[in-house]
Amino acid sequence: MSWKALLHVSAAVLWLVAVGVGLARLWDYSLSPGAPGDAPLRWPASSRIERVPGQFTVVVAVHPHCPCSRATIGELSRLMTWKQGRVAALVLFVRPAGFADDWVETDLWRSAAAIPGVTPIRDDEGVEARRFGAVTSGQTMVYDAEGRLVFSGGVTGARGHHGDNAGLAAALAVLDGEETGRRESPVFGCAL
Description:
Elements: H1 3-30, E1 56-62, H2 69-82, E2 87-95, H3 107-113, E3 118-124, H4 127-131, E4 140-143, E5 149-153, H5 166-175
């Protein structure tokens, strides 16, 4: 084998190794959940937002610029379609201090606002997200008609992943009154 051919083969091998390492790191990142939230077991009395009396209320905390949260809003749309009229949803769009009021009004905001039964809320400095114990974008809490927490976690299977997953299945099961044994799931998103 000539020196040139050996150089080309070596370069190809190095390139394949680099691509493999990159894909492995990307895969690992997509499957690494964010920090778990600590949602209160009852609707926070200090919250300035009100739950809808007599029905389930879903609360989702979102970083308005988190690309992973597009999947969360997509899964929320599925949930709201399947449970139409039986559940209300509030999406908290966290706006850090020092950012303009319209910083939260992204395509995620417009997508959430377009879902029947969903109300987007600007959460200045993440006050409400903290009251609900959310620390990762996509944290979803389901409260029953009496204001008791029945589910807390993510409704996607990985960062930016659309489709069937254990978190969404658990949330849907509690909305149907099923005893699933699973009332939590990992949250995949950016830090709030």
